[in-house]
């Protein structure tokens, strides 16, 4: 079987992208062990945790997250929510000691992802542990998985831009109100550590809405051009955008060489980082916490040669998703690696639903899904239109709680726009390790096709491959060392219909 013959093309494209990334960043010696940033005045901080890093107090912010109650969460509730806490620091090459003080005696603590292997020490209401390298952690006390603490350990910044540079849009420490910023060729937007950007709506609604359309204001940052960067250690807060308005946080289109690095984005009101019809894209070390409907993480559509890495995403909707809209060009050579995902509603790593132009050479690898509490599937190809999806790999992925683990699906849904259906060819699921979530009988339903259907209560996470008809099929699928609940997945665990061909379990 000539499976994945087309993947050789991806290697060259990815090398070109990595060359651009490395070539644009000079190495500098890291002299500081740890760096923390003071919270700006006027920002309400979290009272749930006190955190120190190497004895320095860490500012802990709070932000809304989706409600713990599954029924309103799965129905995109805008009136019910919880609060999570988060803080970040920069670290050099040496390990650092982190101490967290909790308001109550600590009976148990869990540090996720489990694959990081961090062992905490508990003393009364204090927990301490070592962070050996930059990574993004979620800490849960006494079994409370919902209103948890997120700690983001960043690498030290390199080549910090100057506020005097005319090509730099500079936001220093403090609170800034931002409506709509257009980024042009060669420009860098820099959010210094301690900078807190409040996204607000321009009072002139007509002026703002005419760019995008009804009920949607222009993005906070709009990039169109060549060699553009948004970076730093600051925070972008979208919470002031009204419930009925939708706004992208960072939107790039028709662009080449775009880099987005280091920032934290909270309470996005719509897709957080849509990247459309562009080339040579790099999203690195971005942290996203969203709870509203359609608060996707990174949406890559009609673009070529993109790398998403080292990120954290706790979103109500898709975390990293690949799409293609009609007439905007193919999608190819998309690479996602080393990200941590908390999937609140939809998909963790996926392709679809909108697929109008061909999609090829897509790689998701070395990622952790620490929670999967939604109604959709963690790893999915969701084909609702008429193009060809080919050469897709999900590899070295750990899912700590799975309800629906894997899905390849062709069909019609509420998002379908084309009359014709498409095809899926050459898909590899390799070295996937997952644990089934506990059965939750309070979950009321999920969307499959165009209908809401009741949950099927299972004792293991479900998997499916569903083609549409004889001309619109899924072909060439390999399950290579997919392990669920400690055992390798076999054919009888995957629902496969008659329009799926050439499936192998290795």
From TrEMBL:
GO terms for biological process: polysaccharide catabolic process. Coiled coil: none annotated. InterPro entries: Glyco_hydro_28, Pectin_lyas_fold, Pectin_lyase_fold/virulence. GO terms for molecular function: polygalacturonase activity. Signal peptide: none annotated. SUPFAM superfamilies: Pectin lyase-like (SSF51126). Belongs to the glycosyl hydrolase 28 family. Pectinolytic enzyme involved in the degradation of xylogalacturonan (xga), a galacturonan backbone heavily substituted with xylose, and which is one important component of the hairy regions of pectin. Activity requires a galacturonic acid backbone substituted with xylose. This is Glycosyl hydrolases family 28.
């Amino acid at each position: 079987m000539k499976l994945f013959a087309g993947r050789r093309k991806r290697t060259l494209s990815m090398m070109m992208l990595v060359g651009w990334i490395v070539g644009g960043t000079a190495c500098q010696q890291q002299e500081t062990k740890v760096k923390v940033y003071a919270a700006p005045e006027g920002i309400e901080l979290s009272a749930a945790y006190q955190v120190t890093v190497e004895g320095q107090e860490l500012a802990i912010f709070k932000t809304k997250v989706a409600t713990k109650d599954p029924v309103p969460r799965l129905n995109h509730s805008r009136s019910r929510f919880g609060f999570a806490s988060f803080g970040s620091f920069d670290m050099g090459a040496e390990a650092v000691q982190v101490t967290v003080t909790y308001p109550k005696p600590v009976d148990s603590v869990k540090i996720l992802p489990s694959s990081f292997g961090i062992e905490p020490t508990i003393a009364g209401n204090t927990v301490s542990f070592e962070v050996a390298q930059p990574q993004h952690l979620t800490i849960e006390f006494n079994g409370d998985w919902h209103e948890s603490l997120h700690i983001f350990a960043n690498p030290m910044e390199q080549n910090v831009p100057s506020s005097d540079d005319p090509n730099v849009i500079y936001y220093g420490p403090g609170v800034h109100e931002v409506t709509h910023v257009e980024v042009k060729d060669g420009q860098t937007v820099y959010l210094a550590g301690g900078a807190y950007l409040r996204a607000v709506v321009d009072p002139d609604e007509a002026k703002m809405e005419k760019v995008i359309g009804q009920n949607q204001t222009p993005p906070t940052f709009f990039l169109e051009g060549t060699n553009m960067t948004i970076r730093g250690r600051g925070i972008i807060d979208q919470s002031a955008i009204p419930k009925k308005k939708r706004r992208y946080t960072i939107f790039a289109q028709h662009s080449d060489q775009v880099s987005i690095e280091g920032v934290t984005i909270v309470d996005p009101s719509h897709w957080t980082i849509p990247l459309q019809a562009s080339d040579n894209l790099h999203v690195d070390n971005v942290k996203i916490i969203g709870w509203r409907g359609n608060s996707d993480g990174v949406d890559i559509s009609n673009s070529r040669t993109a790398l998403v890495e080292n990120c954290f995403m706790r979103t109500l909707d898709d975390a990293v998703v690949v799409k293609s809209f009609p007439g905007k060009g193919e999608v190819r050579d998309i690479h996602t690696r080393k990200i941590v995902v908390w999937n609140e509603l939809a998909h963790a790593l996926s392709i679809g639903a909108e697929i109008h132009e061909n999609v090829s050479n897509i790689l998701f690898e070395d990622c952790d899904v620490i929670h999967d509490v939604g109604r959709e599937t963690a790893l999915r190809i969701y084909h609702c239109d008429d193009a060809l999806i080919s050469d897709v790999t999900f590899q070295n992925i750990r899912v700590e709680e799975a309800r629906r683990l894997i899905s390849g699906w062709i069909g019609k849904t509420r998002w379908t726009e084309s009359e014709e259906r498409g095809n899926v060819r050459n898909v590899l699921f390799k070295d996937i390790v997952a644990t089934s979530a506990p059965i939750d009988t309070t979950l009321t339903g999920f969307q499959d096709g165009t209908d809401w259907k009741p949950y099927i209560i299972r004792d293991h996470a479900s998997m499916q491959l569903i083609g549409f008809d004889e001309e619109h099929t899924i072909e060439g699928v390999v399950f290579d060392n997919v392990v669920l609940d400690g055992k390798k997945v076999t054919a009888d665990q995957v629902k496969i219909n008659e329009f799926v061909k050439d499936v192998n379990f290795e």
